[in-house]
What does this fold into?
Amino acid sequence: MTAVDPFSAPGVRWTWTPDVWRWTPDRDSPADQVGWPRQVVHWKVDTSQRRPYEQYDFWCQTTYFDFDTHRASETQRRGFAAAMTSLVGPRGLFYASACDGLAGTSRPRTGGPGDITLGLMLEGERRYESASGSGMTGPGGFFAYDGGRRSAVALTRHHCLSLTIRRPEIEAVLGPTIPAVDILARALDGSGLRPFLVTQLTLLQQHSERLSNAERAAGLDNTLDLALLALRTAIGTTVVPASLRKRGLFTAAGHHIERHYHKPALDADEIARAIGCSRMTLYRVFAEHDLTIGDAIRQVRLQRAAEMLAQRPVTMTVEQVARCCGLISLRTFYRQFRQAFDMTPDEMRSTQPKRM
It folds into this structure.
């Protein structure tokens, strides 16, 4: 069942009750003053629902917990276009935002070191200056922000996907001394897991509003695990927890299968090489989910074949569909398809509207 946003105020909608999270977006107090939610929740912000002269201040006061923006310029007072959708949980948060240009400085928390944000720029530019240096991130690059260190940030009109990770989660992987933000960003950009992390962030952006609460929680946890594993493999100085490594590898392997299921030769060796682990490690990771590598590949191929049978023109034969999904033996395809869907490919196609 798809989750809904039952609570709203002008420009903001949210899903939770006070027993889940005491903070709500229509309150003035920053979220970090009342802790974080007991479970993953969803909320959205859109300045188009506010009066133009309110939009900038509304956005800044509602969405930034550890960042002080500059006073509104004359242009910003005449209107400020920004929108965000976010998942927030006990371990961290994800948000996809599109926003007019703005600038400001970090606001380190009084109660201790701040959390770490890792972001992927899709459009626009982000510049920063801090005691450790300065830099710019453009489209396609990762950036990092440390809420516990002083810095100045300026963004043009931009669109980005970001993860804020609780500092204890980062310290458990990298140790108590967190590297400078430029090192964190370079680690993600250079990681072999980068394409899988980009895919995971993109999927959260595309589907988070349609997911159930349980699915949102799983999606956020998988993304956090993958980001932490990418950092650990690049710059970590502590022994990565086995549970984190296994969860991250399972997510990365799933993405590789989704991207390469059409290749008949796709197997455990290729997947293990792609995600940077041994074949035996990969077998153990999937065994913990009661799956073999072959099971996982077959499930994806059959699901994609079912989708193609429903969507492609009848001029595309069943054999062509099977080959497009990496399945060479037509007899094997028919047998596996019937086992999975309790009908043959032809029977499934006959239940769909004809496409010419």
